[in-house]
Design goal:
The chain is mostly helical and about 290 residues long. The chain is about 70% helix and about 0% strand.
């Protein structure tokens, strides 16, 4: 009985948050939506805060007023499944192909439009209307896929970290000792931040725009990447293969210089991504004292 009550409470809170997110994304005030629903602002506030439930008829009315499909009010159904599908597809691609291979980035139209807008004017400067235009969609059409600009930023950064982590794991698995694994990880980081420089750039510049829960998830993924490099540097230093007396700081410096590549690398420049990656491997090995 207690489990059913807890589940109902969680569902009510989730739907309430979703209503609030959609309402704010569309610039609709609490008072205006309440008036259109013919309820008091206090009642709608209680719905959004998860204190009051709402029936299917009222949900359909809210969806209609906000001009979204009713399933948009259920995030687990509308966004989590596509996200899991993207992750599964990434895992399959990396498992079956060379981690050094970078086919053209495939994004759905809304995410492609959002990425282009974030690169040009930044997350805070981008508008839903501009993103929809870049995606070749109407604003209501865009909202059918994503409830807000925040959801699109989260999807882009989750995709970025999933892709990078899967490639890093694949690269590390090829190494026979900590020096080889370190070199492979550096090569992987460098290739990612050149071939996927758009994702890397947005990940570095717009992460601060994430809401707290998403920010912590992406930050944890970034820390996991750093720890992969830390572990190999520390082990190589213990074995005497790296002579740096500052293993921790050196590992941080190596990752930082690789992730910064997305800010300056240009495809079609004097050096290829592969050439630059090899140069960075050599620089990183020199930095950690491998001679």
């Amino acid at each position: 009985m207690a489990e059913h009550v807890a589940a109902a409470t969680d569902a009510r809170a989730t739907i309430g948050r979703r209503v609030r997110q959609l309402r704010m994304a569309r610039g609709v005030s609490l008072r205006r939506l309440a008036a259109d629903l013919e309820v008091s602002p206090a009642t709608l506030s209680a719905v959004e805060n998860g204190r009051t439930g709402v029936d299917a008829v009222r949900l359909a009315q809210i969806a209609g007023l906000l001009d979204v499909p009713v399933e948009q009010l259920f995030p687990a159904a509308s966004t989590d499944v596509p996200q899991r599908s993207r992750r599964a597809a990434l895992a399959q691609a990396v498992a079956t192909e060379d981690w050094r291979r970078y086919p053209p980035l495939e994004l759905d139209a809304p995410l492609a439009g959002a990425l282009a807008a974030f690169l040009e004017v930044g997350y805070h400067g981008a508008t839903i209307r501009d993103i929809a235009h870049r995606a070749g969609l109407s604003v209501p059409g865009l909202y059918h896929h994503y409830a807000s600009k925040q959801e699109m930023l989260v999807a882009i950064l989750d995709l970025t970290m999933d892709d990078l982590q899967l490639r890093m794991v694949a690269a590390r698995s090829e190494g026979r000792d900590p020096v080889e694994r370190f070199a492979l990880l550096v090569e992987c980081l460098a290739l990612f931040h050149t071939h996927r420089r758009e994702l890397g750039f947005v990940g570095a510049s717009e992460m601060r725009g994430l809401e707290p829960a998403a920010y912590e998830r992406v930050a944890a993924a970034r820390r996991a990447v750093q720890r992969m490099v830390d572990a190999e540097v520390e082990l190589a230093a213990q074995e005497g293969a790296f002579t740096t007396p500052h293993a921790h700081e050196a590992a941080r410096a190596v990752v930082t210089m690789c992730t910064a590549m997305s800010q300056w690398f240009q495809a079609g420049g004097p050096a290829s991504a592969e050439d630059v990656a090899q140069l960075y491997v050599d620089l990183a090995l020199e930095l950690v004292g491998n001679h």
